[in-house]
Amino acid sequence: MIYADLDNMKPINDLHGHESGDQALREVAATLGSTLRASDLLARLGGDEFCALLVGAAAQAAPTLIARVEGALATRNAEAERRWDLSLSLGLAESPAGEDEALWDLVARADAAMFEAKRAKKASRDTRRELA
What we know:
Elements (H helix, E strand, L loop, with lengths): L1 E5 L2 H8 L1 H18 L5 E6 L2 E5 L8 H16 L10 E5 L10 H29 L1
Antiparallel strand pairs: 1-3, 1-4, 2-3
Helix pairs in contact: 1-2, 2-3
């Protein structure tokens, strides 16, 4: 399970308008949809949060998938006349084979991992600012 949160959605809405925010959400959905496998299930949970159930995927495949998502976002961000950059905070959770786990428990663990990734990303930005 991958839980994805669009970083800096509020500034996109505030600086460029809600139509731009909607466009950013469509771009994230398209990017995630184009990088996931046909067997994976992608859903927008609401706001700026998405969830992907990676059907039959092994945890070892997650870094490759994350690299593909980040590469696709970087390609979009490099396009001419971009008014904002797309960035995602991603959380991963795995349900071990043969174990029964409620779907929402898996979502909750992936969500918690996403919040930790977002916190680490913010701490890294704050540290870079302090060093500058």
